[in-house]
Amino acid sequence: MDMHAPKKKLGLKEKYQVMTRGLDWEPSYQKKEDIYPYATYEGIKIHDWDKWEDPFRLTMDAYWKYQAEKERKLYAIIDAYAQSNGHLNVTDARYLNTVKLFLTGVSPLEYMAHRGFAHVGRQFPGAGPRVACLMQSLDEIRHAQTQIHALSNYNKHYNGLHEFRHMHDRVWYLSVPKSFFDDAITAGPFEFMIAIGFSFEYVLTNLLFVPFVSGAAYNGDMGTMTFGFSAQSDEARHMTLGLEVIKFILEQDPDNLPIVQRWIDKWTWRGYRVLTLVAMMMDYMLPKRTMSWKEAWEVYFEENGGALFKDLARYGIKIPKCAETIALEKDHLSHQAWGTFYNYGAAAAFHTWVPEKDEMDWLAAKYPDSFDKYYRPRLEYWREQAAQGKRFYNKTLPMLCQTCQIPMLFTEPGDPTKICYREVDYKGGKYHFCSDHCKEIFEHEPEKYVQSWLPVHQIYQGNCFPEGTDPTAEGFDPLAAVLQYYHLEFGRDNLDFEGSEDQKNFETWRGQATKNV
Amino acid sequence: MAVAAITQYEFAPLDSVEKFHGNQLLYIGWEDHLLFCAPFALPFPPAMRFGDIVTGVLPGCFGYHPDFARIDWAKAEWFKSGKPWQPDFGKSLAENGLGHKDVIRFRTPGLNGIAGSSS
């Protein structure tokens, strides 16, 4: 083989060519379809991988240099924040519950994204997308690590953060983000890219990261804010990759359009259902609010997403049809979600509470068509009851949606007084759904979703107790056993914020830091 | 439609009735009372009398609500899979035609939740 030695100093474009596509080769003694076994079964047709436009000409050597520089800055700030007891500068100890939700619900997804991109980065027959996916895979593991490091400081002082990884695989509400990502990584490489690379990273990511990062900034949490900013330049790269993927696939063959459209419809809805947790975080959990969920949806999806789909119209892509349902839910989503966590506050690894009067007024101003009419009476009743020592804890397990795994808390589109029930009979079994969209997703691939690990059903099957538990023993307390299985300590990690150890400790420590006691 | 897969893709459902130790699941919702955020999922033996669920189980599920004590069960309207349905309180779940993972709801006319807000 002739070796062609490149010139000593390469231009940027040339260097990119040599260090990415130049490293690829045509196999001679193995068949291409054996090397890339997942490249065709989803029905996507790619005729020429060389048509892939590399959205960012980044090579590995430059990648390490940039990321190392960001790490140095990030860890310097995280250390300074920890050493100066920065946690005592947050607005209110209630804020810490958003951090618990993020660490248990979102950080493990970063790790799964790392695995997912590593997988598709191996499976795509084109060298361009393989390199881009490799870098995103590395970004994602870096995000998981920096989040865990930044938030570990809170674990020294507050409850509910000690077993985030264990909880992610077990706790009932964490099955929502977990099953979302498990669904994506068990799909083929093209669907994964549309699911995570496009629908999540491009269409919905602003609704996840902006609320958490600006929420952190508004509430004095410099640690979280800093990892958010450190991830920001990566996110811009991920968004570009997501967009390039979809354009490339659609330009390759007209037969790809209906498949891609169905994936966009599915994954916009799946992602939106996961964002239910963000909606309630924004409207109920941040002591100092940034904007309402409804406003965020209008800016980041209806305006920005609307412009994106207008741009994609030339390929024949339409705005996902679930957008109409979502528009009807935006006045209700956060209230219904927070009500659910208030109901099941004994089984959550963070604290819940009824909003203060000024917070209810903020909610009424942001949601003039829904809050006072439907949700204030509920919250005020709970507050009155709690004041009489009868804080409501719902002890009966809820019915779950087979697809999104969220309790069936959503109401009929256009009627916030009626729960939305949908069902399907499949091979002699009954399956229930929270919406037309979750039902359609099931109907398209029932073989996949009959395997859903629904926490409520798993508890009733006896699979969510610590090993060696005898549920037939006298005085057996199922809730206590489930919490042990979750590694969730009753009376410390759960229940109302009022009277919690977090509340007392924060008050004491802040007092010591600001007063002469 | 079927899952796109590289080989045969067939798995047993995770929630078939034989996994529930002699019980079957019944989902029960109370219309216009969203103080309870979602319908409930409950495991019962198929031979259990329907009336025993109403008198023995529902108070533990819904009793927190001030409307619950005011329910006149003779006037309650029942629905199965969203369609009007009449249970026989004296008969078992199986005799009432209730199978694994059936969903029923009841409406209590005149009772519309906290301050009439469907809460």
Automatic annotation (TrEMBL), chain A:
It comes from the Bacteria. GO terms for molecular function: monooxygenase activity. Pfam families: Phenol_Hydrox, YHS. Keywords: Monooxygenase, Oxidoreductase. The keyword Oxidoreductase applies. Residues 411-453 form the YHS domain. Gene3D superfamilies: Ribonucleotide Reductase, subunit A (1.10.620.20). This is YHS domain-containing protein. The lineage of its organism: Bacteria, Pseudomonadati, Pseudomonadota, Betaproteobacteria, Rhodocyclales.
Automatic annotation (TrEMBL), chain B:
One of its GO terms (molecular function) is phenol 2-monooxygenase activity. InterPro entries: Phenol_hydroxylase, Phenol_hydroxylase_sf. Pfam families: Phenol_monoox. This is Phenol hydroxylase. It comes from Pseudothauera nasutitermitis. The lineage of its organism: Bacteria, Pseudomonadati, Pseudomonadota, Betaproteobacteria, Rhodocyclales.
